[in-house]
């Protein structure tokens, strides 16, 4: 486990921890402090410089690591293919919560691309929605094994139907699995009109709908749930979408479990 604050005038060292308590104590003692920042709205984030240090560190293995990033200041880099390649070769998944109202920098597209190419996901939101979205993201640590990662390029209105699938749970076991869907690869705009989905078992006994009285809302560009699923049955995810444009949009589907699942294939890069 490791953590670091970036975009500070005095670059901070990455801190490595051997247990959750050490990490938690350090985070509480080193909370965000605007006075340590650059103090302008033009300087780009040094996120990629810090991330490179983590990827090349000699203190902890990075294979299979999960990286969670909260971003207020955007980077300026337009090409981070070298970092993406290193992340992919080490099975590192990157999850990023991006503030839709930046404090500086110019390029949020590379943030989405980095998460997309590593089977992570990126959410754009602001205010309380950003807080909730990041909380949902961090909550996936309770279900660290990804067993579904699908991406769809869509436009206008239509429907996505996943092939039927099973969770990694043993037959007869039930568990809360994390479910995430994202609807745009940038700050939510007026081209997005609506999205709803049904998550159902093929035996007809389970049927969860979004939106619904049991579901969480869309926070920015992402919606997340914890669904109690059974290892004995198959499921299908059906998504209906509506965009006010024929311009390409990206919908991402992600699922996570507490039961082991091997690394999934990555997108073509």
From TrEMBL:
Signal peptide: none annotated. InterPro entries: DUF7154. Residues 150-257 form the DUF7154 domain. Transmembrane segments: none annotated. One of its GO terms (biological process) is innate immune response. Pfam families: DUF7154. PANTHER family: ANF_RECEPTOR DOMAIN-CONTAINING PROTEIN-RELATED (PTHR23062:SF3), HYPOTHETICAL PROTEIN C.ELEGANS (PTHR23062). This is DUF7154 domain-containing protein.
């Amino acid at each position: 486990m490791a953590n670091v604050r970036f975009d500070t005038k005095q670059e901070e060292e990455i801190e490595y921890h051997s247990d959750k308590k050490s990490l938690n104590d350090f985070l509480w003692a080193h909370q965000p402090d605007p006075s340590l920042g650059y103090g302008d709205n033009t300087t780009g984030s040094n996120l990629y410089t810090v991330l490179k240090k983590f990827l090349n560190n000699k203190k902890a293995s990075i294979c299979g690591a999960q990286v969670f990033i909260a971003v207020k200041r955007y980077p300026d880099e337009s090409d981070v293919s070298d970092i993406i390649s290193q992340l992919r070769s080490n099975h590192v998944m990157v999850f990023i919560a991006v503030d839709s109202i930046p404090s500086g920098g110019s390029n949020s597209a590379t943030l989405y691309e980095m998460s997309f190419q590593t089977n992570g996901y990126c959410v754009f939101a602001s205010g309380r929605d950003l807080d909730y979205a990041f909380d949902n993201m961090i909550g996936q640590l309770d279900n660290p094994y990804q067993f579904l990662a699908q991406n769809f390029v869509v436009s206008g209105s239509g429907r996505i139907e996943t092939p039927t699938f099973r969770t990694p749970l043993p037959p007869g076991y039930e568990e809360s699995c994390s479910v995430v869907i994202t609807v745009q690869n940038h700050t939510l705009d007026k081209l997005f009109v609506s999205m709803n989905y049904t998550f159902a078992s093929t035996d007809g006994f389970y049927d969860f709908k979004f939106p619904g009285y049991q579901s969480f809302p869309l926070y920015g560009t992402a919606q997340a749930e914890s669904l109690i699923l059974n290892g004995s049955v198959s499921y299908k995810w059906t998504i209906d979408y509506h965009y006010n444009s024929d311009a390409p949009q990206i919908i991402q589907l992600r699922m996570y479990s507490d039961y082991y699942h091997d690394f999934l294939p990555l997108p073509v890069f």
